[in-house]
Design brief:
The complex is a heterodimer of chains A (206) and B (279). Chain A is an all-alpha fold and 206 residues long. Helix content of chain A is 80%, strand content 0%. In chain B, helix 2 (12-28) packs antiparallel against helix 11 (239-278). The chains are: A mainly alpha (206), B alpha/beta (279).
Chain lengths: 206, 279
Amino acid sequence: MSTYELIGNGIAAFLTLCIFSFLYKDNPFYKFAERLVAGVATGYFTMLLFWTNFQDKVWEPIFVNGQYHYIFPAVLGIMMWTRFSKKYSWVSRYSLAFYIGIGSGVSITVYLYTYLFKQLQATISMPLTADIAGFNTLLVVVAVLSALVYFFFSKPHTGLFGYVSKVGIYILMVGFGAGFGLTVMGRIALLVHRVIFLRDYLIALF
Amino acid sequence: MTFFEKMMQIDRRWVYLAIGLAVIIPAIIPFNVPVSVSPEVEKIYDFVDSTDTGDYIFISVDYDPASMAELHPMATAIINQAFEKGIKIVFVTLSQFGAGMVEQLTNELATKHNKVVGEDYVFLGYRPYPAITIMAMAVDFRVPFPSDYYGTPLDSLPMMNGIKNFFDVKGVIDITSGNTAEFWLTYGNGRFGFPLAIGITGVMSADYYQYLQSGQLFGIIPGVKGAAEYETLVHYPGAGLDQISYQVIAHAVILLFIIISNVAYFATRRKKSKIGGSI
């Protein structure tokens, strides 16, 4: 490890320990590291947006290449800034209306297709055969219907309806359990990554 | 105060300490854990493996340093496999901090496999608003990205000759820690129907399996476990496999805590209800 890397990784190791110190209790070292991350991220993102948006999509097309039709989206963008003025904030509604209109037009059909029709099709077109795949199909259908029953509040959850609703809540619990297990795996991965980093740094240092 | 009552009131910092120690053990005494490969991971491996030399795949690196621990190993394994097979890769990022991730991956792996930017791989760069960027790329990569990340016009890159949009690549793999998977699913696969696979963090995994069953995704690499599986398939042991031994110990400790806390909860509840009954 070169001297430059040693110093750089030393700062990273110090900041890692600063963040971990929050596990004991809130302290100035944690606050410093937290604010440093927020500040660096904001600065980086601002300059990134400037170079990948303003420079590419406003400055160069309009002022360098003479593509004056880019003025229209640029003006819509500038109009959004009127939100900061009480007197002229109504102007921003035109930009928002334009944005929401386009967004809705593009999204509604494709969202219905992706999240409703394709999922419905996949649920009802599974083969109901006398093997493990068939059992899986049965499980999916029972799970979907009972979970839906649990969220049906127009009828009291009593009798048979109540039993199906109870199956629904168990199905949901299984789903939450799987989610929790995977979340634990993810969080441990983050911890392990830092522990391995600190171990390698200490080995390099001594 | 009984043992169980003490357990119910334990300071959470002892739990942190226990997990910390559990994670440090494999760092001092390393050991290997066998990894079984799941079909959803193998499908992505098979897809890359069946892609011919000189063909293109598209990889969207949509994560930032906060998710490196989980996603960098799987990205590394996929790129290693693709470069070794001579597959050309088009990279993009829809995450504002993803450019650094792509650069780190390509700098390390392109050098390792003697790959040249513009000939063997290209990095298009970053654009905000994923939905608009994806739909624009489906028309032509040159619409949102007239030049690559380094400012070279796409038309002057040898690799981009004869490649226009997603229909000229064999498939798209999105490695993501955020909602860009939804954008790829909706505006990519949903709108244009190209083959899509995702590599995601553990937290997200449970939310995306239904799209595998419906055929909207052809594969999923879920978190660090999926990364370890992929590394096993490509025979490139890396950070994913390294982490599995740590995961085993940490999970065992967490399971132990869950069991103790549940036993303690029911034991103290029974005692409380007995006291309540006698009153």
